[in-house]
Amino acid sequence: MHHGSTTVEMPDENSDRLSPWERIRGQFHMRPSEDDEPQSWWIASTAIPLVAATTGPLANVMSIVALVMPWRSKILSTDSAAGTSIQEGYPDPRWDTVLNAVSLFCGIVGNAFLLFNFTQIVRYIIALPVTIILWFIAAGILSGITIATHIYAPPVGIDRVYSQAYWSAVIAAILYFVLSVILMINMLGYFLGKYPQHFALTDEQRTLILQMTALVIWLLIGAAMFQQVLGLSFADALYFSDVTVLTLGYGNIVATSAVGRGLIWPYAVIGIIILGLVVESIFKFAREVHYDNVVRKHIEQKRQSTFERSIAFDEQEERLTSGEVITPPGLTRQKSEPNRHLHQRPIRNTIDAIATARRPRILIMREEKDRFNAMRRIQHDTMRFRRWNNLIISIVAFGIVWSCGAVVFWKLEPMTYFESLYFCFTSLLTIGYGDFTPESNPGKPFFVVWSLIAIPIMTMLISEMSDTVVASFKRATEVFADYLVLPQSRVYKTCFGRIPGVAQFVRSREEKKRKERGFPLEGADESGNRETADPEESGQSNTQREDFAESYPHPSLEELVRDLTPLELAQQLAFAIRRTSKQAREGKRKRYSYEEWVEFTRLIQFTDPRARPSSSQRNEGIPTNDNEDEYGVINWDWIGENSPMLAKQTEPEWVLDRLCESLIRYVSTQEESRAARGDVDLTEEPTLRKERDIGIDE
């Protein structure tokens, strides 16, 4: 007893002897560049690097404006032909210009190392600290010289003000500092072992970085070009290029010469194309990140909750029925405790359950259908959650950008807060009336940065509204048109068919008409008698007959219970591959019914050479191997972790892959059968191969 207490206290004594630095170091767990451990902190690992990579070029642009223009200017006139006030800059102190150039160099080199990190030219552990340090240096230099200029060399006089270059330096310093801080959060996550030492970005996300860089370069080209053609300052030319590419067209700065107007044509077209690519990539990135880290987590929580409830129900049902089961002669009753562990594994699929159970097959199928329907309800709830959650997030982001931007313009421009809200709203919608525009020196640089961030967010909001609000309005319009504008007979038939007397009357009339056409009264919909009827009498066109020929009458649960011969299954396998390949090519969202899934499952698994029990095994109830085998034949539970309804592929794509694998196995088993009979020699090379062995990529 005494020895046990001593061993318990030893770790506490050792931990008390650790220095604070050793305790802190013990919290760090730096992972290698590639490992199989799960990743967390998805905002730090994915969103933060992408935000830094797309916003870093904007900070470089502001720093360039701060370098190429004087920080102080004298107002000569409040009106010009181009629509701007005429200001003349006067030289800055030499130390100001030198330090400004050093800051720009640090900012550009830091951005370059960040891009090298994304392309894996430089290691993460080297490139990211270099970027953080250089951006901190750039922010510190810009902050220092802006403060020093305000203290030691401010503009003196009523006609002398800080130019747009000075305020661009302030904005660049803020951007460098904020980006450095959030990159430190990314590095902290790596030190804590939340993810490996690389940025977890896809090719599409890397493309977004290049597109944003191209957009910024295009704005700089436009600024340099319109500065010379329109006689503007570099900052005003940058503002004009931004307004042109964003299709705002305020009209406060306009091209007055024929050369300037002619250059706007190609410049605007190319700029709008680049902007469209950037907005599309941002929209895809937001949806992808939200789905991978929010929606899939929501699906998993709902699935796990449903799965746990099903386990609890099965255990309760087992306890209630264990004492009432009558053991058949010659069989021993198994204890309920070992059986309880079976629920912790993925439950076998319907086909295997039918092969091994003593209960009627139709009962097993109906139980599995309940689990299938439960997963379908989870999918439906998740789809609704995804749409409205995306919309809410977009509305919140739009509200933040709108209101915060209005506060800044309210302080920088001669506007009331309501007028600044009005100005920001018309700008976000790219209406651009021009009655309110940024005119002050700090307002224009801020507008360039704000507009490049805000307008893509507005575009995302409109796209999300098309999936929710607009879709609901469209459905309401279609219902209104079906009932009043363009009435459909089927709509009224469905509506009045809910009345018992009317429903019976309509059904009797339909049966009478079908009898007159020569159709049987029952089961005609599922039978093949439609194809034998005269198409002219039934009023079907050639296109309708072709569509019907492509359709496939899916069997009911009662029909699926019947055992089919391998030849019949092989024929159905070919038809199923043709049908699913067409559905996969269409690219539409297709969700199969439970009966279709049971049919596909049977076609997938009947070709497994090791999972096919003998007839004696089926009769005696000997279970078959229900684990995934070497050739990809798997069993799944509809609400389990390996449910096909949780796959990233569409259902037609998933089923088509498995059916093709089944076809390969079927051909291989046929060759083996022929070899066993002596028809062919297969001793040199086995033909039963995995999918990757024959060069098919997933």
Automatic annotation (TrEMBL):
Alphabetized GO MF terms: outward rectifier potassium channel activity; potassium ion leak channel activity
Entry keyword set: Ion channel, Ion transport, Membrane, Transmembrane, Transmembrane helix, Transport
Positions of the UniProt region annotated as Disordered: 514-550, 670-698
Subcellular location: Membrane
Assigned GO CC terms: plasma membrane
Listed Basic and acidic residues bias regions: 671-698
Family statement drawn from the similarity comment of this UniProt entry: Belongs to the two pore domain potassium channel (TC 1.A.1.8) family.
Transmembrane segments: 41-68, 98-118, 124-153, 165-188, 208-226, 238-258, 264-283, 391-410, 416-434, 446-463
Protein's name according to its UniProt entry: Potassium channel domain-containing protein
Membrane topology qualifier: Multi-pass membrane protein
Keyword Transmembrane helix assigned: yes
Classification via InterPro entries: 2pore_dom_K_chnl, K_chnl_dom
GO biological processes: stabilization of membrane potential
Source organism of this protein record: Penicillium polonicum
Chain ranges of the Potassium channel domain: 214-287, 400-469
